[in-house]
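RECORD TYPE: inverse folding
INPUT: C-alpha cells
STRUCTURE:
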C-alpha cells in the first residue's frame, strides 16, 4: 500500500490545500494530512482545531486520514510507513525552500521521496496568511476557504482582529 504524507501548518486549511489533498488522494492508496508544529509561528487555530477543520472538509474522502505531530517529518513518515511526502508548489518562491527540505528529508530517510504538485492557477497566490489578512478586512472568502469552515474562521477573526 502506497502511503503519502501531506504536511503543513494548515492555519486554517484553504481551498488551495484542499485541491492538493483531493489530487494526492487520487494518486495514493492512503494520504495522511499531518498538522505539524511550527514553533516559530503563533497560530490562529490550535493544532486540535486545525485537525478538526481538515477532518470536516475531507469527510467525503475515505482514504484521507488527518493527524498532527511534533516529530521530525522524516521520522514521522518512517513511523507511519509513508514513502512519499506531498508538497504543493505555488509561484517560484516556494521552490528553493521546498527543494532544500526534500533533499534533507531524503538524506535522513532514504526510503522517502518528495512529490510536488503544482498549484491550480486560481490558488497560485493563496496562502493561509493571505486569507487571514483578507478576512480581517471583511473580504468575501468563498473563493479561498472551503464553505463549511468559513463560519469558524469568521468567529475567530472577530475574537482576534
Ligand atoms: P500556507 O503557506 O498557506 O501557510 P502551509 O505551510 O500549511 O501553507 O503549507 C502546506 C503545504 O501546502 C505546502 O507544501 C504549501 O506549499 C502547500 N500549499 C499552500 N497553499 C497552497 C495553494 N494555494 N496551492 C497549492 N499548494 C499550497
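DESIGNED SEQUENCE:
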Amino acid at each position: 500500500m502506497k502511503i503519502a504524507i501531506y504536511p503543513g501548518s494548515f492555519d486554517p486549511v484553504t481551498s488551495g490545500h484542499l485541491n492538493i489533498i483531493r489530487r494526492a488522494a487520487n494518486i495514493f492508496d492512503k494520504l495522511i494530512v499531518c498538522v505539524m508544529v511550527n514553533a516559530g509561528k503563533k497560530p490562529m487555530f490550535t493544532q486540535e482545531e486545525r485537525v478538526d477543520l481538515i477532518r470536516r472538509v475531507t469527510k467525503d474522502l475515505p482514504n484521507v486520514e488527518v493527524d498532527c505531530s511534533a516529530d521530525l517529518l522524516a521520522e514521522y513518515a518512517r513511523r507511519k510507513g509513508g514513502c512519499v511526502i506531498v508538497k504543493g508548489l505555488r509561484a517560484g518562491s516556494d521552490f528553493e525552500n521546498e527543494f532544500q527540505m526534500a533533499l534533507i528529508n531524503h538524506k535522513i530517510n532514504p526510503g522517502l521521496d518528495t512529490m510536488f504538485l503544482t498549484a491550480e492557477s486560481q490558488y497560485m497566490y493563496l496562502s493561509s496568511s493571505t486569507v487571514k489578512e483578507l478576512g480581517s478586512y471583511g473580504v468575501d472568502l468563498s473563493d479561498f476557504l472551503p464553505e463549511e469552515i468559513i463560519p469558524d474562521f469568521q468567529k475567530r477573526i472577530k475574537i482576534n482582529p
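NOTES: The helical segments are 15-27, 47-57, 73-80, 95-108, 128-136, 150-159.
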